[in-house]
Specification:
single chain, alpha/beta, Rossmann fold, 6 helices, 4 strands, about 10% strand, globular
Length: about 180
């Protein structure tokens, strides 16, 4: 969607009403992963899903709730209320244009509560259900088997082996040779 003209989007909507909305954050990921990793990952995974399904991808929201990372230069964090309102405004615009199934692809754990709040408010205000999925493995969902392996090896967590591996696989800028400096 973010690379199409409005007539192309209008034509798409005649046949399909699904759109993926990738969201992430801009925050530190150790000394080796670029700060846009969460937004980058959600967008890249959304693109891969789009290639296989033909579903459109909305522009990625690169900022999230990352106040706990503000001591690191380059972090950009929105307040909780602002983030909830941004999610709501974007989703309401998509609904207005005829998208009936919006799936938020979340690449940052700090966004989860704001997404849940926005989903609840949109449902109360419009009756529409907005879906969401965490693009990184979760204990009870997508990729849970990989987390079991990481726990056995003593790994896991922010900017860990899993997040670094996913970033490498997707083409993220990762500085493995400078990670310990």
């Amino acid at each position: 969607m973010y690379k199409l003209t409005w007539p192309e989007i209008e034509s798409y909507l005649k046949n399909c009403d699904i759109v993926i909305f990738p969201v992430g954050s801009n925050e530190q990921h150790g000394k080796h992963i670029a700060e846009d990793n969460d937004a980058f990952t959600s967008l890249q995974i959304a693109k891969k899903v789009a290639e296989r399904t033909g579903v459109l991808v909305a522009p990625a929201l690169p900022f999230g709730y990352s106040s706990h990372h503000m001591k690191f230069p380059g972090t950009i964090s929105l307040s909780f209320d602002t983030l909830v309102n941004v999610y709501k405004e974007v989703c309401k615009c998509l609904l207005h244009h005829g998208f009936k199934k919006i799936v938020i692809f979340n690449g940052h754990g700090g966004n989860t509560n704001a997404i849940t709040q926005a989903q609840r408010e949109i449902r109360e205000e419009t009756g529409c259900i907005i879906y969401s999925i965490m693009v990184f493995p979760t204990e009870k969902g997508f990729g849970s088997g990989s987390l079991k392996i990481l726990k056995q090896e003593g790994g896991g967590g922010h900017a860990c082996e899993m997040e670094t591996s996913v970033g490498l696989c997707l083409g993220q800028r990762i500085l493995l040779d400078k990670a310990e400096k």
